[in-house]
Design a protein that fits this description.
The chain is of the alpha+beta class and 166 residues long. It has one domain (5-25, 39-164): Porin (Beta Barrel). The protein is 15% helix and 51% strand. The chain contains two helices and eight strands; from the N terminus they run H-H-E-E-E-E-E-E-E-E. The chain has helices at residues 8-26, 30-35, and strands at 41-51, 60-70, 73-81, 87-100, 103-113, 128-138, 141-147, 155-164. An eight-stranded antiparallel barrel has the order 1-2-3-4-5-6-7-8. A hairpin with a 2-residue loop joins strand 4 and strand 5 (103-113). The chain starts with 7 loop residues before the first helix and ends with a strand.
Length: 166
């Protein structure tokens, strides 16, 4: 893992800001009632696959995320090594669409911070990358399906393990 230490404090401060923003939004809502306790789940991101990629990406993406079940939504925050090899804090909100026995399907939206975006040919000049997609869960395994970036890859598929904490 080649995370650059010069980004460490920038990443830590950004993660704090993201968590404080989510907390501020939830204050005074019924969602907050279920979200003030300890996390319900920890997820370990293992890697990704950039489907039909036009260039090489880092596809071993270790990361750790904590999730809180809050009524009908789930809040998730964590940090991982992004596909360009840099640490990226991330925050997501997800909503479960379907559940049957050990399988579930959720839609999610969120944001991830990329310290360097030179490796992505984005049509905007921000270090904040929006994340929108679907997540499937089967027992302790999760997979996410995120639409690709035009002219770079068709779809991003991530996978990892998740464990209940309560």
């Amino acid at each position: 893992m080649t995370w650059r230490i010069d980004y460490y404090w920038e990443v830590v401060l950004l993660l704090k800001k993201v968590l404080l923003t989510i907390g501020t939004i939830l204050i005074g809502t019924s969602v907050l009632a279920d979200c003030t306790r300890s996390p319900d789940r920890v997820s370990i991101l293992i890697g990704s696959e950039h489907v039909n990629a036009s260039k090489e990406f880092t596809e071993l993406n270790p990361g750790v995320f904590l999730s809180w079940d809050c009524n009908n939504i789930m809040l998730t925050a964590g940090i991982y090594e992004n596909s360009l090899g840099d640490p990226s804090p991330s925050a997501l909100v997800s909503y479960e669409i379907y559940e049957y026995q050990d399988f579930s399907l959720s839609a999610f939206a969120g944001i991830s911070y990329f310290p360097e975006t030179d490796g992505l040919d984005l049509e905007y000049s921000s270090h904040y990358v929006p994340l929108v997609g679907l997540q499937t869960n089967y027992k302790n395994i999760f997979m996410q399906f995120i639409p690709g970036v035009e002219n770079q890859f068709d779809m991003l598929i991530t996978a990892g393990l998740r464990f209940e904490l309560n």
